[in-house]
Structures are given as C-alpha cells and as structure tokens.
Amino acid sequence: MALADIWFLLIAVLWTGYFVLEGFDFGVGVLLPVVGRTETDRRVAINTIGPVWDGNEVWLLVAGGATFAAFPEWYASLFSGFYLALLLILVALIVRGVAFEFRGKIDSVRWRRNWDVAIVVSSGLPALLWGVAFANIVHGVPLDAEHEFTGSLLTLLNPYALLGGLATLALFTFHGAMFLALKTTGEVRQLARAAVAYAGTAAVAIGGPFLGWTLLDKGVVWTAVPAAIAAAGLLAGLVLTLRGRDGWAFVSTAVAIVGVTATLFGSLYPYVLPSTTDPAFGLTTVNAASTPYTLAIMTWVAVIMTPVVLAYQAWTFWVFRRRIGRADIPPATGLPAAPQITPGTTTR
Asked: Which of 173, 195, 288, 339 fits a disulfide with 283 by CB distance 3.0 to 4.6 angstroms?
C-alpha cells in the first residue's frame, strides 16, 4: 500500500474520532433546552462535556492539518469551494467555546439565556453542516481541469447533501442523548433517556435513506458492510437504552458513527474529491498527494505522537468518568471564587 493510501486511511480515522467524540458534544448542546428545565440542570448538562469538549476538537485540528500536509491539492480545492460553509462552522465553534466560558460570568437570567441559545445554535449548525460538506465530498462537486471549484453555494445545497446534513444532526443528537444518560443522574438523566427515543427514531428514519442513497449512488459493494453495522448500532442503542444499559448503548451509537464514516470514506476512495464536470478532473490519492518524502516524515511523526495524544485523552475521560448531578453543581452567585473541582465536575 502506498503512503498516500495510508494517509487517506489515517485521515478517515481522524475524522471518525472527531465525529465520535465531538458528536456527543454537539448532541449535548442541541439538547440543552430539552434536558435543562432549570438553571442547575442546564449546568449539569454542560458540565458533562466541560472537561473534554476542547480536547475533542483537537481531532478536527489534526484532521485538517493532516489533509493540508498529505493532500495539499485536496485541501486547496476543498477550502476554496466550501469556503462559506466552513467559515460558518468555524464561527459556530468559536461562539460555542465563548458561550461555555462566558455564560456563568454574570448572575443574570437574561445573560445566561442568551448564551444558552448560542450554545444550541452553535452546536446544531456544525452538526448539520458537516453532514452537508461530507455528502458533497462523496457525491462530487464541479471541478475544472485545474481542480478549481466552479459551482456556487446553491450547488452544495443539493437534496443528497441536505439529507446528509439532517442525518448527521439527528445522529449526533442521538449520540449526545446517550452520553447524557450515561453521565448524569436524577431528572437530567430521565429527560435524556426520554430524548433518546425521539432522537434515535429520527436518526434511523433519516440515516437509513441517506446510507441507502450513498450505496446506490457510488456502487461500492463492500461499503454495505459498514452501512449495515451503522444501522445495527442505531437499533441496538435504542434497545439497550430501554433496558437501562447506558454504557453499551453509548458504545452502540459510537459504532454507528464509525460505520457511517467508514461508508462515506469507503465510497469516496480512490478519489478524495470527485468531479461532476468530468471524472478526469477529479482529485485522487495519487494526483492530490504530497511528495513521498513529506509523507514519510509525517508518518514518523504520527507514529510517535499519536499514542501520546490517545493516552492523554484516555486519562482525561478516566478522571472525569463518574456521573454528575445537581449535588455536584455549586450555587451560582455573581462572580464567585473558583470552587473546589472534583473529578467529574467543572466550575462552569
């Protein structure tokens, strides 16, 4: 296997990790008004992801950096053609991080309500747009002989891409509901478990047709396997939640996200960005890749640094592994001194 093919696989793994980890972050944000009937309950929900959300975004940075270094032609065409959509995602991620940090700075109902709205919107928008973006990548976009995007924003808003966006939004919301059910106690957990049924039904109803359309459109036979695994993961998550097996239910939705991502990248290969203008204009792992020397250096860096990053993130999840509830949330006052942090809680 050539180094370019190996890096295509590694980039697929990085995006898979990002969608699995940041996916439940997005889901928690979308569900904030559903599970947070009171200020304390909203703080419980936010604190479930407080210690990990920024670490989860590292996967996005690494995936983007790896794409730039390993496939510069892919990066250039992608970011020029998808500029507005990616800009909206970037702005949403910035607003989301600011909202997490600022919502508790002033003891005002209106202040917190406005930031809560920002959290919901800035969580739902990327969840939707990532699906739109990757659906377009898999389906193909108009590229000319110079590998430059010749379409417009409306080109990206085609039925297949919009269905992909709704599928990822529903899937991440389902994943987030599972995470809340796993990580909380009391009323927040009960409301999260109730949300699982609705979000899971939506994920199955939208995700199934999207995967089926992908299989029919691309015709890559072996991708039926990860697509079937994704469908099984979604159904298993619903059943396991009803049986009170929150941990295994969360694993099931994670497996579903892995299956969906594998289906998309498997349907894409050997292209990295197909052209709907002329297949000969499409970008592949061969004509979009960096030099073998660059890929070799990147491989050594990845071999050394990846275990370190994985170990650190695993340690973070282990430290903050226990469930949290209302008793773990300190009372909200104007600008309090930082309370004592215990594993599983944050100061937000």
From this structure: 288
